[in-house]
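ok here's the first one, seq then struct tokens
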Amino acid sequence: MMDNDNTTPPNEKTADAFEAIASTMVKFRNEMEQFDNMGTKVANRTRFILRTVFATLTISSIYLVFMIYQMANHMIVMTDHLESMYGRFGTMSQNMHGISELVDSMGNSISGIPVIAQSMMKMDEDVSAMTGSVTDINTSITTIDYDMVRINTDMYEMAGRLSNMNRAVNRISNDVNEMAAPMNSGPMSGFWPR
């Protein structure tokens, strides 16, 4: 005959097993809720950081395009002034040639007086030197004008590249919004971190 004192009734064993399973399930549920809360916080912070970064990039791109546009406008005005200055130096060079011819004529007219003739020849040499200097200045202005045209072309190319960068940033922003779409539904919806 079996001894019933050392054995546990089947109902008590079943109750203990259910209680152990229930306790385990409660712990598991609490841990899963903690993980869910942590995941929600991380997702909200990540979304906030990404939006801040893309907003900063967009504002920087717009500001750079505006600054380059302003600089290109100033370069165009500067080029116009340089062209005007170039024309005036050309007129000045022609006037210097006329003065040189007049001084030569005066020197020939008073060649009978040695001292005045020598002074006039010295003046002729000085005017010739001035004419050469004006010609050099005219050449330098032409070079500056060419460089300004190249700078203006480079500025327009830079503006085009920044426009391409702005479009690329917009595409990245759209991709991030598409990636964030699953996080915007369910318990992780909303804009600001919780």
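and now the second one, same deal
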Amino acid sequence: MSEMENQEFIHLIREDYISPVPVYPIEKPGIPSGSTYFFTTSSGLRYEVLFAKKRDNYLGNIINFSVLSDEYDDEYTETNRGEVYRVIATVTEIIRLYHQSHGYSTSYEFSGEFKDSMEKRQTSIRSLLYYRKAVQILAPLWNIELSGNRVVVFRKRYSNG
């Protein structure tokens, strides 16, 4: 049996984590290994959460979530309808679901958009928010790093002996 086959599932999100707010209903991909999820908020905004494989590491993932609406040119300011905590809780649940079907994944990366008035900052307010949330919910066998405007979560290396 190969080392990869011998490894047990390593949770990405703490097993005891319970969302402090309800999540929106999630539309899962048609197949468990799918990479695109959707949800709609109470105000009617439809979101897409997409997982893409990194070019240099097939076990690494880039997470992109965005509003699917032509009515918003500036997604950051226009979509703030007091739903941010439920949106983050729903994206967290989607990441948990994705990881259940992709247990060999070794990293997840995401970055937040900058507000027009904040583009001179090294790290966007959204990336800082994602980082703080990830620190709270990450399982112990994962590390987190804030690098510029990117939040990277990666599996800790460990030995079996």
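notes on #2: Confidence is low (pLDDT under 50) at residues 1-6, 74-79. The two ends are 17 Å apart (CA to CA).
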